[in-house]
Structure formats: structure tokens, C-alpha cells
Design a protein that fits this description.
The chain is of the alpha+beta class. It has 7 helices and 13 strands. The chain folds into 2 domains: 17-174, Roll (Nuclear Transport Factor 2, Chain: A); 183-311, Nuclear Transport Factor 2, Chain: A. The longest helix is centred in the middle third of the chain and has 25 residues, at 186-210. The radius of gyration is 19 Å and the shape is globular.
């Protein structure tokens, strides 16, 4: 590996590890159909209103309970020790830190997208932890939602500290051209989940050939977001910007960093899904080997478009 490639690999690893290290201070069925004649924007607004309603309710309870109210039973969250699975396990982890037992959380979505069948979507935005002494910690978050018999619940969740400073507040949405009825056949959903899984693996394989930055630029949507480094106030936005950020401003050659999903989920409309897995970072130049959790939210802009990540 050349020195430039090694520097880019270290930059990529450092961004992920820094988020987890600073994040450590914080832890840290059957789908219902969209309403008849509902339009994509209406469905997206439904999800945004649910996110905002949970945020409003969070003002009356502890930070841990505010988050727990919106979590699905099988929710997964990135944490320093890896992917933590299950609402009970995540709440136990959150409650192990006094920061999550007093004061309250508030948040507001600034970005979002939804599947064509109205059963999956994501929201992302700014979050603030207000402590009992009125001091505040600024955060940013990404939530992947699934709509089931009990309504919208968060299936994947990630938050990270953010620097004080501006964050785009104009609502940015990525919507399907139209809504379609959900398909209930498990074989159809499984087939789409395999497509999402394959997209993530191809993404990693491509990075091994053309480099991390170039792969992130190629496999991301023009409106994709990356949660970004903890020392910046906003997300990285757009595949090109994300590619340069994760590669330290360069687009060097092949990397020996790789990643793969442990499992994937997808909407029955075949245009939305997510992967959960680990990044494998080999030892290099005195740096020990690392294993960093990730989740990626994927979207197809149209039935004939390729899978591209939209949030991670």
C-alpha cells in the first residue's frame, strides 16, 4: 500500500472510530398499507410527524426513555462495543450512563426518504441533550424506520456528537415517483433483501479496486448523507463530498479495508432497504486491526436504477 493510500485508509478508519469513541459518552410483521389515494409527500409527512411527535414527548421523560419510546423490539444501534440488538439491551446500555437518566432530548428532522410501498423510510437531523444544569450537548442522528401493525418504529438508530455551528434546516426529501401497495409474500421481500446485501458487498469489493473515496462517490446518491465527523456541525452531503471526506480529501487507489453485511432488510416495493454489518480494518503501520460496526440505508431512485446508498 502506498503512503497516500495508507493515509486515506487511516482517515476512513479514524472517522468511524472517532464517532464511536465520542459516542461512548452517550451510551451508550405485517405492514400496514398507505392510506388510499395517498401521495408520496403525504406518506413522508406522516413519518416526519411521527418523528416530531416522539421528539415532543421526549421533553417530558429521560433521554433514555425518550429514545426507547420510538424503538422497535428488534431495534439495532451502533455502539463502541459493536452493534447492540434489541430494545431491552439498548435501553440497559443507555441507562448505564448518567447522561441518559436526567435532563431530556429534543430533536428535529431535516432530511428524509420513504419507500414506494410506504413501509420503510429514514429521517435524520439535529438532536440536543439538555442536562439538568441546562448545559447542552449538540448531536446529529439517523433513524431507519419500519411501519408495521403498531405504526412507525425505529429499526436502526445512530447518533453522534456534532460541533456547535450551523446545520441545514431546510427540509430535504427523497421521494418515490408514486406509492404502490405493499406485497406480503415473504419470498419477494427476501429477494429484494438479497439485492441490498449484494449491493453492499459490491461496494466493498469496488473499494478494494478503485479506493475508498472513489467507491463512496460511485455507490452513493447525489443526495446521500454521511453522519460525518464529530468535529463538524452538519452531515456530509452528496456522494462526491462523502467520497472525499472518507478518503481524507483524496481519491487514492485500492484499499485493504473491507466490509460486509451480517443481514439486510428491504421494502416489498424493491426500492428501499438497509444493511447492518462490520468494517474490517487490518493492522497497518503500527495501527492495530479494528472491527467497526456500520449500517447503510439503500434506495433505488427508479425501478431501473441501481441501488445506491442514501444514508450511512
Amino acid at each position: 500500500m502506498t503512503s497516500r493510500n495508507r493515509d486515506a485508509s487511516r482517515s476512513f478508519a479514524a472517522r468511524h472510530m472517532a464517532t464511536l469513541v465520542l459516542g461512548a459518552t452517550l451510551v451508550l410483521g405485517g405492514a400496514s398499507a398507505p392510506a388510499p389515494q395517498q401521495k408520496p409527500l403525504d406518506a413522508m409527512n406522516d413519518l416526519l410527524s411521527v418523528d416530531r411527535a416522539f421528539a415532543t414527548a421526549s421533553a417530558r421523560v429521560s433521554p433514555a426513555d425518550g429514545l426507547g419510546a420510538m424503538f422497535a423490539p428488534d431495534v439495532e444501534m451502533r455502539a463502541p462495543q459493536g452493534v447492540v440488538s434489541g430494545k431491552d439491551a439498548i435501553l440497559a446500555l443507555l441507562r448505564s450512563n448518567p447522561e441518559n437518566l436526567a435532563g431530556h432530548l429534543s430533536w428535529s428532522p431535516t432530511r428524509g426518504s420513504i419507500s414506494a410501498d410506504g413501509t420503510q423510510g429514514y429521517t435524520a437531523g439535529m438532536m440536543t441533550l439538555t442536562r439538568p444544569d441546562s448545559t447542552r450537548l449538540q448531536l446529529k442522528y439517523i433513524s431507519f424506520w419500519v411501519r408495521g401493525a403498531d405504526g412507525w418504529k425505529v429499526r436502526l438508530f445512530r447518533r453522534s456528537p456534532r460541533a456547535d455551528g450551523p446545520m441545514g434546516t431546510a427540509l430535504a426529501l427523497s421521494l418515490p415517483a408514486k406509492l404502490v401497495p405493499p406485497v406480503r409474500e415473504s419470498s419477494v421481500i427476501a429477494r429484494y433483501a438479497k439485492e441490498v446485501d449484494a449491493a453492499e458487498r459490491a461496494f466493498s469489493a469496488e473499494a478494494g479496486v478503485i479506493g475508498i473515496g472513489a467507491a463512496f462517490a460511485k455507490y452513493g446518491s447525489a443526495d446521500a448523507i454521511n453522519i460525518g465527523a464529530p468535529n463538524q456541525s452538519d452531515f456530509d452531503i452528496g456522494a462526491e463530498a462523502i467520497g472525499k471526506a472518507v478518503a481524507g480529501g483524496e481519491y487514492p487507489g485500492p484499499t485493504n479495508i473491507s466490509w460486509a453485511p451480517e443481514h439486510a432488510v428491504a421494502a416489498s416495493s424493491g426500492d428501499f432497504g438497509a444493511t447492518v454489518g462490520y468494517i474490517q480494518i487490518p493492522a497497518d503501520g503500527g495501527r492495530p486491526a479494528g472491527r467497526v460496526p456500520f449500517f447503510t440505508i439503500w434506495r433505488k431512485a427508479s425501478p431501473t436504477s441501481p441501488w445506491r446508498y442514501i444514508a450511512e
